Amino acid sequence: MLPTIFLLLACQLLGETFHRLTGLALPGSVIGMILLFAWLALVPRERPTLTIVTGWLTAHLAVMFVPAAVGLVNEGEALKADGVGLVVATAISTFLTMAVTALVFRWALNRFGPLDTVETESDSPA
């Protein structure tokens, strides 16, 4: 588990370093994700361990929002001035993110998913 967490943090760090050194318009976290993708393409044996660790991190994701929520308390004036706009922007961007994620997941499942499909009742001949 620790080597996999180190891999995630190393990709993040390399991405941030590359972003700061080059001034590239992509955020460092996105560059780190691309580096992680390249690493997983080159070293496929890392995938099962990464799946387990990311599942654990996702299960405990709520804990990671605590510092962000505490930080919002200190921004009361900004929230008072632009709170409605922030809520609308967050709702719209969340919806768009979920829609794009679902479309990409559906495409990837059709492209890379298992070849044997489960026949549903509506698919079977009567």
TrEMBL record:
This is LrgA family protein. The chain crosses the membrane at residues 25-43, 50-72, 84-105. It is found in: Cell membrane. It comes from the Bacteria. Keywords: Cell membrane, Membrane, Transmembrane, Transmembrane helix. PANTHER family: HOLIN-LIKE PROTEIN CIDA, HOLIN-LIKE PROTEIN CIDA-RELATED. GO terms for cellular component: plasma membrane. It comes from Novosphingobium pentaromativorans US6-1. It is a multi-pass membrane protein.
